[in-house]
């Protein structure tokens, strides 16, 4: 017999909550399992993007000195490019949402 799929414990401390949700119940919100605010999430994403860009720059400089191989440089630059494209897409969506709200009648 095949057993059911258990809860994924993606965030520590949410195992019981995930099990209750899979069983059809809704767990009450407690101070321990509240998520981060939008501003905090945006700040963390921006920090991660800046760190990725700085890492790519450092690896590129190391390659110029002969301390890094081409593969490392390509991986770092591709990660930086993806992070930058994501940041630009988020910026565009935020600006678009702001413009839409500013056009609303009061």
What does this protein structure show overall?
This protein has helices at 15-22, 38-65, 70-102. The protein has a domain at 36-102. It is elongated and about 60 Å long. The model has no long low-confidence stretch (mean pLDDT 80). The chain starts with 14 loop residues before the first helix and ends with a helix. It has three helices and no strands. It has 106 residues and is mostly helical. 65% of the residues lie in helices and 0% in strands. The longest helix is centred in the C-terminal third of the chain and has 33 residues, at 70-102.
Short summary of the structure?
The chain has 106 residues and is mainly alpha-helical. The chain is built from three helices and no strands.
Strand tally, please?
0
Return Rg in Å. 21 Å
Quaternary structure annotation: single chain
Biggest sheet architecture:
none
Kindly state the mean pLDDT as a whole number?
A: 80
Instruction: List segments where confidence is low: pLDDT < 50 over at least 5 consecutive residues.
Output: none
List the main descriptive attributes of the protein structure presented here.
single chain, 106 residues, mainly alpha, 3 helices
Question: Secondary-structure blueprint of this entry?
Answer:
Blueprint: H1 15-22, H2 38-65, H3 70-102
Helix pairs in contact: 2-3
């Amino acid at each position: 017999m095949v057993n059911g799929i258990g809860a994924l414990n993606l965030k520590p401390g949410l195992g019981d909550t995930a099990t209750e949700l899979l069983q059809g119940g809704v767990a009450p919100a407690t101070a321990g399992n509240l998520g981060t605010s939008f501003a905090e999430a945006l700040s963390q994403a921006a920090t991660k993007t800046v760190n990725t860009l700085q890492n790519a720059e450092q690896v590129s400089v190391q390659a110029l000195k002969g301390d890094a191989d081409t593969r490392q440089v390509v991986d770092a630059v591709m990660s930086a490019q993806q992070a930058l494209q994501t940041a630009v897409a988020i910026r565009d969506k935020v600006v678009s949402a702001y413009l839409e709200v500013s056009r609303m009648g009061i």
